[in-house]
Design goal:
Structural class: alpha/beta
Number of helices: 7
Oligomer: single chain
Number of strands: 7
Shape: globular
Helix content: 40-55%
Length: 242
């Protein structure tokens, strides 16, 4: 398959992916308004649709390794593109994110994010938001689930080094829950910027959980070592396909 053909297929896929968002959102809207379970179902359906479109339109498949968590845990993942957000969330029964407060006003994303328990925060107020989330779960006013965070705080191209933020260690201490590291190689196929998507099999690997109780600095060192080592291995595997 030539580069030009794959580029056109990538462009059409991108259009279909974003068009599917309001369509799925509208279909599930009544259920989402009535129940957080409806919002979760709608979000999972959108992930399923996009992963199917990627396989059909651009030849990009996703392979899961390890065991996706089902209980109350913190999921700390490598972040390379929008696609890994969908791939990771789609594998979890009740995932939620910490997101910028302004996103709660975004069409579709805002409503669904709030309904599934995502935590809108203003800069500098993350600790208060987490405290409220834990209290709401304990009081039974919100669903327990898996809090997905990105320790590097932004999308990082495959193979590039960026520091891990200390706030992840603070969250780990405050939540007092196991942390499941997640390694990916999706950035090899779906880069941070640009239209072009490469065909192949991307991997999302759920690694051995880190139990609560560690000192935050030691936790951060272990988390980074596990994620970066696994990502280097997966990157090498992916580069063998391209």
């Amino acid at each position: 398959m030539t580069y030009a053909i794959q580029w056109v297929r990538s462009l059409l896929f991108n259009a279909a992916m974003y068009l599917a968002m309001p369509i799925v959102g509208l279909i599930y809207m009544p259920w989402a308004i009535m129940s957080p379970k409806g919002a979760l179902a709608g979000c999972h359906r959108y992930c399923t649709v996009v992963l199917w479109l990627a396989r059909w339109m651009i030849g990009l498949k996703v392979e899961y390794r390890g065991t996706p968590p089902t209980g109350e845990v913190m999921v700390a993942a490598k972040h390379q593109s929008f696609f890994d957000v969908l791939a990771i969330f789609g594998a979890l029964p009740s995932g939620r994110f910490i997101f910028k407060s302004i996103l709660k006003y975004a069409p579709v994303i805002g409503l669904y994010g709030l309904r599934i328990g995502c935590i809108p925060v203003d800069r500098g107020k993350r600790g208060a938001a987490i405290t409220k989330m834990l209290a709401d779960v304990k009081a039974g006013t919100t669903m327990p689930g898996q809090l997905i965070i990105y320790p590097q705080g932004t999308r990082v191209p495959a193979g590039e080094k960026r520091p891990y933020k200390k706030g992840t260690g603070a969250l780990y201490r405050e939540l007092n829950q196991p942390c499941v590291p997640v390694a990916i190689n999706i950035g090899i196929f779906w880069p941070k910027r640009g239209v072009y998507r490469k065909p192949g099999t991307a991997v999302v690997e759920f690694l051995e959980p880190i139990q609560p109780g560690m000192e935050p600095t030691a936790f951060m060192e272990l988390l980074e070592e596990r994620i970066e080592t696994a990502c280097a291995r997966l990157d090498a595997e992916a580069l063998g396909q391209t």
